[in-house]
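for the recovery benchmark. tokens below, seq after
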């Protein structure tokens, strides 16, 4: 099955290059990969980065995240062209010193997409030409589409990509944004065809009980187990529910460390990979590009719970393949444990594109009305309407369609649709043509005793599940709900569990976790919130919503400076900490943790601090 990218590339520009077992890409491309190439290397770990590092030319290599850079840098420390990884602790002076070092004949700069801009000034000051002297290599190019919804700057290198005289894209699972520069016959697509049986075996387990299937699977192995789960809440549940506290380790992003250590009292948590424990957990930070060098050959278990944790969905065409190739010494068994969800109704891409196009057109009509409206009240009303429209997620500040976010949305919809049924998921895996699949259906009986009556009221576990659902609905707030599933889900919880709904709307998910979903403790906290005079809250909210702007990032200092005077004026005896924002606003979430995303902000003095981006208001104000 040819990659869908090929619809933009003439058939004459499609080439297949065969590789024998034991060969690496440098054997196939002794002079390096050519410019204007999209390279589908098919199998991970065949030496694409090493090939570029060994070439006698200056290179900027874009990698998806910092652990990849650290690993490549350490591995090539003794190379004649050592890599300079651009990460925390590496500054302008370090880059300029490296570029001016004549002992390094060919410069190899490795950087994440978000930090790519940091290279421009030192390269210019070193009297080098960014676009003519350097090759631009975007490794794991599929990530720009997969991650653009929560990494807004990941597309930064693509804005310069076509300015480079020499450039190429590479991945074992390439996805490429629909940009005009890729159309026509400027680019060639090279597909690496292994001349050996490279397809590993994989058990695909569909189940109605994720924990039961995991427990049964790990009970049947004597090997170390590497879990790949893109949701820390589910990782916590696995460790605690399955009794794995004695021998585990979690590798995750920096934003997840505090939640795991401070909030959940887990001790074996790291940002950078060191070694395998009996049970090792990896979040999506480690799904691609990172080389995990171990003596052991572990079992891999990928876990998807698309009912409670939609961010755990794994793409059979990309992430599943990348995960299977992370361990350079090989693996034993590979298993994907998943459930399915009928809400992921398949939709035609054409239908979604037309719907988005029509919404953008209607949005532009509103802009036209705003331009011709002469009254302040009329403009304010139109601006308020625009702020509440979900289509704004797909627009730039200038009101134009953001192609990267649209591609991400289409991609997410497509991948989610694979989980509509086991048949669709199997079809996707078969079309990906990478694994030899054994399909297993594990159905666990209900634990309820036959004939026993269900206890009235909402259990703690049901309360927790409803809170998770509300948090997931909030995270998807800016996505277009074609089916109405989100609104129906919210209404169901509001009707069946009004207490949890009310508490969530007033205090949010994090406080529920802090109170351990205990109803008595939650009731006490809810009463404290209700004791405030509701009439007094209206002017407070009016002031807060006047001062804070949707779409902006606010640090702890910003929040204190802007919110504390409002509290003081209204006699609220509380400190205006950064955590108060969640009482009044919805914040941009980290999909890995479900918690507010920490965003770096650079002050005028050059100091970097962290803040949260406001995405919407929690309350509608009516006098």
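predicted aa per position
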């Amino acid at each position: 099955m040819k990659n869908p990218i090929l619809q933009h590339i003439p058939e004459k520009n499609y080439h297949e290059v065969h590789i024998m077992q034991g060969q690496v890409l440098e054997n196939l491309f002794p002079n390096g990969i050519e410019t204007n190439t999209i390279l589908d290397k098919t199998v991970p770990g065949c030496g694409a980065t090493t090939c570029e590092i060994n070439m006698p030319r200056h290179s900027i290599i874009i990698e998806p995240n910092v652990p990849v850079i650290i690993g490549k840098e350490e591995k090539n420390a003794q190379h004649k062209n050592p890599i300079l990884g651009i990460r925390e602790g590496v500054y302008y002076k370090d880059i300029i010193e490296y570029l001016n070092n004549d002992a390094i004949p060919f410069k190899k700069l490795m950087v994440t997409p978000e930090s790519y801009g940091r290279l421009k000034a030192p390269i210019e000051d070193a009297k080098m030409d960014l676009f003519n002297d350097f090759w631009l290599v975007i490794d794991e190019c599929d990530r720009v589409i997969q991650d653009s919804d929560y990494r807004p700057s990941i597309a930064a290198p693509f804005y310069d990509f076509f300015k480079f005289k020499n450039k190429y894209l590479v991945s074992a699972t390439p996805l490429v944004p629909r940009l005009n520069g890729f159309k026509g016959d400027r680019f060639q697509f090279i597909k690496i065809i292994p001349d050996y049986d490279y397809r590993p075996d994989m058990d695909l387990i569909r189940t109605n009980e994720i924990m039961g299937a995991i427990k049964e699977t790990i009970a049947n192995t004597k090997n170390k187990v590497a879990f790949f789960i893109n949701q820390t809440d589910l990782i916590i549940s696995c460790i605690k529910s399955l009794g794995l506290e004695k021998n585990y380790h979690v590798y995750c992003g920096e934003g997840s460390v505090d939640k795991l250590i401070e909030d959940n009292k887990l001790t074996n948590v790291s940002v950078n990979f060191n070694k395998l424990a009996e049970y090792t957990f990896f979040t999506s930070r480690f799904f691609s590009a990172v080389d995990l060098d171990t003596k052991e050959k572990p079992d891999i278990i990928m876990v998807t719970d698309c009912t409670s944790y939609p961010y755990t969905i794994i793409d059979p065409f990309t992430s599943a393949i990348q995960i299977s190739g992370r361990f350079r010494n090989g693996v034993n068994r590979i298993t994907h444990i998943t459930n399915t969800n009928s809400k992921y109704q398949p939709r035609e891409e054409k239908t979604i594109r037309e719907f988005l196009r029509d919404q953008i057109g209607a949005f532009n009509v509103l802009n036209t009305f705003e331009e011709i409206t002469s009254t302040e009240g009329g403009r304010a009303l139109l601006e308020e309407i625009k702020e509440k429209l979900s289509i704004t997620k797909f627009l730039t500040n200038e009101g134009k369609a953001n192609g990267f976010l649209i591609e991400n949305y289409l991609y997410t919809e497509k991948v989610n649709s694979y989980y509509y049924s086991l048949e669709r998921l199997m079809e996707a895996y078969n079309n990906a043509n990478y694994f030899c699949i054994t399909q297993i259906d594990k159905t666990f009986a209900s634990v309820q005793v036959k004939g026993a009556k269900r206890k009235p009221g909402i259990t703690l576990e049901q309360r927790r599940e409803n809170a998770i659902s509300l948090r997931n609905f909030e995270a998807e707030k800016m996505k277009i709900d074609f089916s109405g599933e989100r609104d129906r889900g919210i209404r169901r919880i509001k009707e069946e569990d009004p207490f949890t709904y009310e508490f969530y709307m007033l205090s949010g998910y994090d406080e529920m976790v802090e109170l351990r979903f205990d109803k008595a403790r939650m009731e006490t906290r809810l009463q404290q919130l209700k004791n405030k005079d509701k009439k007094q809250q209206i002017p407070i909210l009016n002031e807060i919503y006047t001062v804070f702007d949707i779409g902006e990032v606010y640090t702890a200092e910003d929040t204190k400076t802007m919110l504390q005077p409002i509290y003081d004026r209204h006699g609220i005896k509380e400190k205006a900490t950064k955590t108060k924002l969640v009482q009044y606003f919805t914040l941009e979430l980290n999909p890995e943790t479900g918690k507010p995303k920490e965003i770096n902000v650079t002050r005028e003095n050059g100091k970097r601090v962290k803040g949260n981006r406001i995405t919407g208001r929690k309350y509608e104000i009516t006098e």
